[in-house]
Amino acid sequence: MERDAGIPCVVEEHRILGPLRQVSPNYGEEETRNIWQAGNAAFMRNWPYAYALGQDPKSVISGKFDISVLPKGGDDGKNAACLGGWQLMVSAYSKVPDAAADLVKYLVSSEEQKKHSIALSQLPTLPALYSDADVLAKAPFFKNILPVLENAVARPSTVTGVDYNQISTAFFQNVNKVLSGGATAKDAVAAVEKVAKRIVH
After folding, report:
1. pTM of the predicted model as reported, rounded to 2 decimal places
2. Is the CA virtual torsion 176, 177, 179, 183 positive or negative?
3. CA angle, 190 as apex, 43 and 16 as ends, to 5°?
């Protein structure tokens, strides 16, 4: 995290979320989704799978919400998302590598990705599916998501390697301190920077 860019970002997040501090910033994905899906939160940041669950006809919020990109920082900022995914691969130790490779090919086929997009709101890797009529009928937010994926930012695990969890933990713990009023943005960013420099240098 660069200090000059990081501090304003954390300050802005605190400004936006400050009034909502009664909701714990430490909730995990499912704790957050359950509160939101019960109709007890104004908004939620989560992974795309939550869309299909929220739009389930049994859900009290079905048809009452939409999805947007994360806010960008400043006039020159870019909307960015963290590149994640459901990676499929064949183990070098597999006793049936050909069958495993065939399974991977099947699971990444257009037909299977389309099924997962419709049933689970999982983001496909194939750009054409973001304009597919059947997919958009079930998950209309897909029409706005392709640019998000094209501009996704890789996690710093490439640089931090096996120490990625240390920097990730330092980041979320220190940002949460700011959101809960326990630290200033300047101190939080400095703490994250200290951990990052120890790992990278």
Report:
1. 0.73
2. negative
3. 20
Q: Which amino acid is located at 178 in the chain? A: V
- Tokens encoding 67: 């999805």
3-state secondary structure of 82: strand
Q: What are the domain boundaries of the chain?
A: 85-151
Separation of alpha carbons 90 and 65, rounded Å: 38
Average pLDDT over residues 28-51: 89
Q: How far apart are CA 18 and CA 185, in angstroms?
A: 13
Give 51-72 pLDDT, tens digit per residue. 999 999 999 999 999 988 777 7
Please report the sign of the dihedral spanned by the C-alpha atoms of residue 108, residue 133, residue 36, residue 171: positive
Between the CA of residue 196 and those of 4, 17, 104, 189, what are the distances in Å? 15, 25, 36, 10
Q: By the 8 A CB rule, do 124 and 116 touch?
A: yes
Percentage of residues in the chain having pLDDT higher than 70: 88
Token pair of 176 as six digits: 């949460």
Phi first, then psi: give them for residue 82, nearest 5 degrees: -80, 130
CA distance linking residue 196 with residue 178, whole number of Å: 18
* The pair of three-digit structure tokens given for residue 56, joined into one six-digit string: 């389930």
- For residue 175, give every residue at least 6 positions away whose Cβ sits within 8 Å of its Cβ, in sequence order, or none: 10, 13, 25, 188
- Is residue 35 a contact partner of residue 27, using CB atoms and an 8 Å limit? yes
